[in-house]
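Re: your question about ATPase AAA-type core domain-containing protein

S., sorry for the slow reply, the queue was backed up all week. Below is exactly what I fed in.
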Amino acid sequence: MEDISDHIRAWFREFYDQAHAFDRYPEIWEGGTILVIKGETLTPDEYMEVQRKKALEKLKSAEQKKKEAEAKKKAKELEKEKKKAAKEKLRERRREEKELEKKEGKTYDFKKPEFATNAYITIEESIARYEKDWYFIDELENEDELPIMEWITLDKFAEVHQELRPIVDEVLRGERELLQKALCKDNKKKYKPAKPKKEKRKRKGKKGKKKKKEAPDLTADRTIDSLYEELIEKSVIRTYKKKKIDDFIGDYNYAAYEKRNFLLQDPLAAMGEVRDILKTWLFGMGPLGLPKPKSFCLLAPPGYGKTLLVEAICNETDAVLFDLSPATVAPTSAAEIPLLLHMVLKMSRILQPTVICIDEAHKLFYKKIPPGEASLDPTKLGKVLFKQLVKQIKKDDKILLVGTSSQPWTAKMGKFKKCFEKFLLIPKTDYGSTQLLWRHGLSKKVGISKDFALSPLSLVTRGYSPAQILGSVKQTLGLRRRMRLTREPLTAQELLEYFLKQTPPEYPITDKEYLKFTKFYKKADKLAKQRAKMLQIREAELAKQKAKEAKKKK
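Result:
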């Protein structure tokens, strides 16, 4: 405290000796004593120059003042013109960059703010800090990893200085006023107490850009524990099995490139590619700068692993699962739905990362409610879902909305699309996927002998769901059957007979039934629409090319 006071008093003395005056004391909001210590206040010579200019300003005539005002106005206009020219140059540069991107492809400059991710900024800051603080420190001799006491002392000094600064400011401001009074008395001038300088107000934003009022907290009078317990009682917050995305078994579509580029087809993502798509959406394992969706819906017939994928998403993101499926929400009345959604949103922000799951999401947007489900009123949640939940999820929130659907065509397309950013259609099982499923199921139970007809079995069971295939293995290879394996080896026929012995018999999904999924997906998904347009353009170009070649032959 004494060191700071002595420094400020020396500043008073310097001003008195050189300028025979005292400069105003900096306000607390400006920095107070810190400005004086850093040397960011006026020097005596600068102070005298300011006073001289003020005296000259008073002596100026009206004409001189008018000329100066005009000169300032012209200078402002020139400044505006320069800014306009700079903006135009920037636009030109951006146009050139876009043209280059079209010719050479997109480039990534991490110095530009649009490409600088939080991770990149953190790394840059860490490198700068290392170069400033750690570069010259040799830690090889510090085997016990003792702290650097000099740094700790400096930090503590800074803390003490921050605590004492307001007290020192108040004392020295009083001393400055006493010195000013004495100076006025010596110069036989009237003493005027220094007026405190007001802090400049920040400019308000443009009209029309008013901040949105935050929705009132409907559960402000309740504790977090009570809300948590209520959601558990309602089975909204629930546990899930520890699955992984790689547990979703399926092969890749190795002919997709040829189909897309040479046969002008638009093949769906194979079951193996579903894993990669989900990883891209969740962890950003794709092109740089690709935005991650805050909501998506998985489309597939029953038994295709939608629940497994939801559980894998929760497990791999270490998220809390909130279940808002029609079956879970059924006991809640339509009047209580907004309160329930408010509770879910509030708790999901507190417990984030969170996954909000809606199983059979199409039921929320039924075109026509089936008579058997009319009493449950499944559409009551769909009426307020977008406004009360989807719209309220912010970019910074670690909240993901995941839906699943086995009959998406029964829902109103517009409302369904509004609530889910993306749709992912899980394809029918092909030869590669069925082979992997049979191999996985059998190797867990008994292993596969060389004589076992795995390839024909995989070919015949194309279209059967993973649940049906794995169920066949589980039910056929019971304990008694496994005991007889040495005498009666397992045959592919046994596994096929399982499907026919069920009541009713189990068959794979037909192309006609699966076509409903593909039609909905191509209408709902933005990328599917874009691919369809691209194929139409290619077909038109090929038709023109063929017509030209036919003319040449003639």
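The beta strands are 237-238, 295-299, 320-323, 354-358, 399-405, 422-425. The longest strand covers residues 399-405.

Happy to talk it through on Thursday.
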